[in-house]
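Field: COMPLEX_INPUT
Field: COMPONENT_COUNT = three
Field: RESIDUE_TOTAL = 274
Field: MODE = joint
Values follow.
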Amino acid sequence: MVTMMGWGFAEQQGWRKGPWTPEEDKLLNEYVNLYGEGRWSCVAKCAGLNRSGKSCRLRWVNYLRPGLKRGHITPQEEGIIIELHALWGNKWSTIARYLPGRTDNEIKNFWRTHFKKKEKCTQKQEKRKAQILLAKQQQQLQEDQNLKIRATPQSEASQGENINMTTDHEAQARQENNMDLISSSYPNLEGDQYCLPALMNQGSVGSWADILGEEGLYMGRLWNLDDEHVNGRMDRNTSLSQCNKSAMQNQAAVTAFSSGGDHSYTFYNGGYIF
DNA sequence: AAGTACGCCAACCGCTGTGTT
DNA sequence: CAACACAGCGGTTGGCGTACT
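Field: COMPLEX_OUTPUT
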C-alpha cells in the first residue's frame, strides 16, 4: 500500500509520539526558518528531530506557524464558520482559509463542540414535540368522547354536568393549543437557540450560534471584520472549484458585508463577487 | 474537600489527492 | 500510464483543566 510506504512506513521506524516539548518546538522552528515550509520528511534528518514528517507538519501548521490567533473564536468568526459550513459542509481547511490565524483543526474542534450543543438542543426539541403530540392526541380523544356523550340521551342534570365538563376540557384544550402555538413560534427558546435578535441586544444570548438556525444563516448575512484577509486570500477559481454540488446548485446569492463598510462581497453559486 | 462529568484542544490515524519519475 | 513519495484533509482519541454535585 502506498500509505504504508509513505507516512506509515516512517511511523514504523520508531518516531516519537505524544505532546511536543519546547526543545522540539525550537528545533522545528529553526528548521522552518532555515529551509522554509515543506519537505517535512527531511525534518527528522536535518533538524535532528525524532518525529515523523507528518507530525512535524501538523505541529507547525497548528501551533508554531506565525500569525496564529490564540484564544476563543469571536462571535464574528463564529458567524463566518456557521455560514461557510452551511455552504461547504465539513471542508474545514477551506473554511479556515477565510479565517486568518485560525487552523482547520481549531475550527473543526469548535464546530464539534458547537454541534454537540445543538444535538442536545435537538433532543430537547424532540422531547417537547413528543409531549405536544401526546397532548394533541389526548385532546382529540377527549373531543371524541364528548361527541359520544352528546349523542346519547341523558337527564337534564347530567347533561348540564357534561356541558360544564366539555366546556372545561375545551378551555383546557384551547389553553394547551395556545401553549403549542407559543412553543411553535419559538421552537428552541428552551435551548437558547432560534431566539429573537432582541435577546442578543438584551444580552440573553452570548453568540451568533445562539441566534442562528439549522441553516446557519441569519438574514443571509455574514459579518467579517477582516477585510484584508477577504481581499487577500479569496480566490475566485479556488472558491468555485471547492464548492460542493449542493452549493453550486444553490440559486440564491448570499450577501455578505464587511463591518467597516469599505468592501462588500457576495457569495454566488459558491463563488463570490466584489 | 473529593469525586465525577464535561468541554476543550493537541495530536494521531487513515485515507485521498497531487506531483514526480 | 503506472508506481511511488509526499502533502493535506477530515475523523477520532486521549489528556488536561474546570465546573458541578
